[in-house]
Specification:
By secondary structure, the chain is mostly helical. 67% of the residues lie in helices and 0% in strands. The protein contains 12 helices and no strands. The longest helix is centred in the first third of the chain and has 19 residues.
Length: 196
């Protein structure tokens, strides 16, 4: 019920802009899911209530986890993905398959919300080698530099220099390697050090 109420509140807060029901800008109005922001905004109160309820439901009965995840995934807004990531991290002993499914999600790696980075750091030691290698390959591929160029042109009126593009790529890679630094193979540890 709370998830549906939050979805309605998010929809109503969009001022008629309904062309994409995934982006809710929650990383702006709720950068951290843990803790309280002492906000009286309805969406923030609902996020806190849902966060606490899903954790309590699963801690009380771990067999509730699949149903809780299914309920969160029924809603397309970005905040629900963040709540799912948060839930799996705070559980501490979430099923490895559920963790791998999220960690292996390319959209999450590209967007890299705070909760994804925290889950990745917390669960890195449990990840199978093939999952780590896939992550490292995606990190090696780097960001979408065409998108970076378009964003740069939009903001500054000119294309980025080669140096600016390479710096953006290094920063993007470093940010994604940081949660994995304790489990990196030696060749990647050298690369990580070189990026720092």
């Amino acid at each position: 019920l709370l998830c549906s109420v939050l979805g309605t509140a998010l929809r109503l807060s969009r001022d008629g802009d309904d062309d994409e029901q995934i982006e809710d800008y929650s990383e702006v109005w709720r950068p951290r899911l843990e803790g309280e922001r002492h906000s009286k905004r309805v969406v923030e109160v609902l996020v806190s209530a849902i966060r606490d309820a899903v954790v309590l439901l699963v801690r009380t009965d771990p067999t509730n986890l699949p149903d809780v995840i299914r309920t969160l995934r029924e809603h397309q807004w970005w905040i629900y993905r963040r709540l799912e990531l948060h839930l799996l991290r705070v559980l501490g002993d979430a099923p490895t398959a559920a963790v791998i499914e999220l960690v292996d999600d390319e959209t999450l790696l590209l967007r890299f919300p705070r909760e994804y980075a925290l889950l990745l750091q917390h669960e890195a030691h449990r990840l199978p080698g093939d999952v780590v290698l896939r992550l490292l390959q995606r990190i090696d591929d780097g960001p979408d530099l065409d998108r970076f160029r378009r964003g740069h042109e939009s903001l500054f009126g000119s294309a980025p220099t080669t140096e600016e593009s390479q710096r953006a790529k290094r920063e993007w890679q470093l940010e994604r390697l940081e949660p994995l630094k304790e489990i990196l193979p030696s060749s990647w540890r050298e690369r990580h050090s070189g990026l720092v």
